[in-house]
């Protein structure tokens, strides 16, 4: 089969790889569509020590079951899935918080991912979808579930109902875009998205219909926001989040562009700021997200760009250089 392989920093290549085999309890999927995630770009840049050259990346996928060693899913059934492969027996798994499983592995990190014509995965990781759901919509389940999980976690800590909150999303990438669209569907009208890429700012204006700012040229008022989502996770955006948040407000930290930095502990303490971190989603979040996508909660998704898998090296380069307005590029493998 043909697969897209991370070969060295700033390089991916289409290569021939053996067809995957279904181990006990696993299935083989024919991949219909797969998204390029920010973490795939980190690997591409050589910035993720967990993802080493020679790996097939990709974990945002939709596909069809073509081989199975279990009875939960039928041959030909179309699915998406949880790329986190968890133990199922720890305290987090049995309480429905399997994203926190300490014994987890991951598709596209510890085993070959979905940038290929076929991929194997445990059947327990699969998530059913409406069989008529378009492949490009189903492949957005994973990143959209990150937004669903983060906003649901935030709402437990906000002091006023979410629609009443003056809200800032920092970053107009996929998670920022999906978070903004979901916030709009939840009734948030006082919404600002900060983004430095002019192409993405135009896309946000067109598809979200919120206030947009380039924080390099337009300063966000200090102490002006009830709720801030940092969908970038750099030192600069963390500082911006703390500057913008009101006393008593909530900061949700999703992005991990930088792995370590200082934060304003004085303001956190004296202004009673709630700082939340979030990691991915639970399987329940993925199932809820499938339903939200099917119902149109994220809009018409016309901002999503599709390219053939053979064009993936150029797609990675374009994303690296900020040459595409789309916050999400989906790759479509050639028919097997």
Characterise the protein shown here.
The protein has 2 domains: 2-140 and 304-332, Quinone Oxidoreductase, Chain A, domain 1 (Alpha-Beta Complex); 145-277, 3-Layer(aba) Sandwich (Rossmann fold). 27% of the residues lie in helices and 26% in strands. It has helices at residues 38-44, 91-94, 135-138, 141-155, 174-185, 198-207, 235-244, 265-270, 283-295, 312-321; strands at residues 2-8, 11-16, 26-35, 55-56, 60-68, 78-81, 84-85, 105-106, 118-122, 126-128, 167-170, 191-194, 211-213, 225-230, 245-253, 274-277, 305-308, 329-332. Strands 3, 5, 6, 9, 10, 17 and 18 form a 7-stranded mixed sheet that branches. A 6-stranded parallel sheet has the order 13-12-11-14-15-16, sandwiched between helices. The protein has a 3-stranded antiparallel sheet with strand order 2-1-4, covered by helices on one side. β15, α8 and β16 form a beta-alpha-beta unit. The mean pLDDT is 95.
Layout of strands and helices, then pairs:
Layout: E1 2-8, E2 11-16, E3 26-35, H1 38-44, E4 55-56, E5 60-68, E6 78-81, E7 84-85, H2 91-94, E8 105-106, E9 118-122, E10 126-128, H3 135-138, H4 141-155, E11 167-170, H5 174-185, E12 191-194, H6 198-207, E13 211-213, E14 225-230, H7 235-244, E15 245-253, H8 265-270, E16 274-277, H9 283-295, E17 305-308, H10 312-321, E18 329-332
Parallel strand pairs: 11-12, 11-14, 12-13, 14-15, 15-16, 17-18
Antiparallel strand pairs: 1-2, 1-4, 3-5, 3-9, 3-18, 5-6, 6-10, 7-8
Helix pairs in contact: 4-5, 4-9
